[in-house]
Amino acid sequence: MIIASRRLVALLGAALLLIGTAGCELRQAMYDQEKYEPLEASAFFTDGMSFRAQVDGTVARGQLMLDEHFYQGKIQGQLAEILPDRVTVDRQLLERGQERYNIFCAPCHGQTGAGNGMIVQRGLKQPLTFHQQRLREVPVGHFYDVITNGFGVMYSYASRISVADRWAIVAYIKVLQLSQNLEFDQLPAEDQRQLQ
Fold this sequence. Notes:
By secondary structure, the protein is mainly alpha-helical. It folds into 2 domains: 51 residues; 128 residues, Cytochrome Bc1 Complex, Chain D, domain 2 (Orthogonal Bundle), CATH 1.10.760. Strands 1-2 form a two-stranded antiparallel ribbon. The mean pLDDT is 88.
């Protein structure tokens, strides 16, 4: 009886081992599927390469950027004078612009846009103040273009700042420029009374 039960246990163990081994082989076969690896030679294609060039005009999902004004800051190839239609200037946009400006721009340009940020105080080249006449008169597309492509020693922030956030920063820069360059008589009457 003991010998029969030992044989039964051994037989069951062998069966389980065979089932487990078959499962491993199946798993390994799924892992090692027949497919071409990158840069592997191919007998299927006439050029002998497994790599296929992208079809002309192919656009990756989420990369179709037809709105030149929104994605490039230009209208018919010229720097945009106004913000895109899909950018609504409100308190939320300006607060977002201020937040992003303080993170990405203030280290060089300073909190007020005067060009006296911490990086400058530590010896790097000082950027121009946003409050000089020339920069107050440039189109908004200029600031968007500089954030996107860089300018002088400033590198591109296109990979770090989303398109919508770039426009929020541009709107905030325009507010900074207004805040530092308004004449007393340009203020609303209520603000004039508070200052007197």
